């Protein structure tokens, strides 16, 4: 008898999982509590897959042999509680896809930098002529690619939400860039629960596999003292430390990036890296280590590290208007991500903060705020927590409730030579549909200033 596969969520990952399930002969039913976008509805119809939106048919869902859950659905929702009570196995789209491919897997997670590192790794492999797929939080559904295409390597960005429902999946190269507080509302406000979710990326690693990580991250190093992995360890650090395989050598005339693995070793002037800032140095190290372990030619790696164009909404230069630089860092949805942004900013920065707070502790950025920020503009439905924390910490603080009001305020209070930085520290869902929507609207408002 064919297996009954239920998919919860009709977005990119859910529709891809539904198509792969049907391809493998399963009885597939997709259910979305909200509204499914038109192009996904058409894809499901074209494949002859049953679907519903605007609610859940619990009798159909609880008849499943297995459920593939969208990462955004919390385990505490009524539908998930009912599924758990019935003992139906719940997996992620990546877990499903991994069953049906023997491609090599480069899997990247971290609280910050994972999208940049994933896209940079993909860029290196693609430029080197590798048949590579891009999946997870970026790119197209991995399940759909496994159903319709054949790749030799997948580069996969994995959130903690995706890792929660991965069990037998195995990475060949696992990367953890850093771990700082994020999504604590999802993890009962317990940091260890979040750490445990991130470390699921090490599940099933063998002595032939590699684990790449930042050697100076206190959370990662502490967790590595408690757990054991059979994988080969490839830590990276800003400067040479015992055991690290990527670092910057400052002893010669020009600072050079050093990558050292059994497969490939390379040296490259740091000034030739296309991405600036300390956080991007670490991202470049992790991507280069992954490429070296896949035996990519060192000249290909150097070239790709030098011509990568970066990620939209991550420290993205937007425009200079009346001598003021505007930077879109809408992807900074947590405090540590904002810290990295501020670390690379000059003095006289006007900082736009705010959105849906996820249990944030803003004290982490306070030293940089005091050093570099001349004014804070709060932008959200409810700015009371930000106003309470930062009032008196900066010369000016403003309370705004829309992107139009925030950008207009920034333009009014900034002077030639200043930088306006949108780096919100918060999720976007109070005023926007996504951080991409927030970033695009910011850029639109800034460009509107140019025409005035």
From TrEMBL:
Residues 313-425 form the Mur ligase C-terminal domain. GO terms for biological process: cell division; cell wall organization; peptidoglycan biosynthetic process; regulation of cell shape. Pathway: Cell wall biogenesis; peptidoglycan biosynthesis. This is UDP-N-acetylmuramoylalanine--D-glutamate ligase. Cell wall formation. Catalyzes the addition of glutamate to the nucleotide precursor UDP-N-acetylmuramoyl-L-alanine (UMA). Its EC number is 6.3.2.9. It is found in: Cytoplasm. Pfam families: Mur_ligase_C, Mur_ligase_M, MurD-like_N. The keyword ATP-binding applies. HAMAP family: MurD. It catalyses: UDP-N-acetyl-alpha-D-muramoyl-L-alanine + D-glutamate + ATP = UDP-N-acetyl-alpha-D-muramoyl-L-alanyl-D-glutamate + ADP + phosphate + H(+). Keywords: ATP-binding, Cell cycle, Cell division, Cell shape, Cell wall biogenesis/degradation, Cytoplasm, Ligase, Nucleotide-binding, Peptidoglycan synthesis. Belongs to the MurCDEF family. PANTHER family: UDP-N-ACETYLMURAMOYLALANINE--D-GLUTAMATE LIGASE. Residues 108-290 form the Mur ligase central domain. ATP binds at residues 110-116. Its main location: cytoplasm. One of its GO terms (molecular function) is UDP-N-acetylmuramoylalanine-D-glutamate ligase activity. It comes from the Bacteria. GO terms for cellular component: cytoplasm.
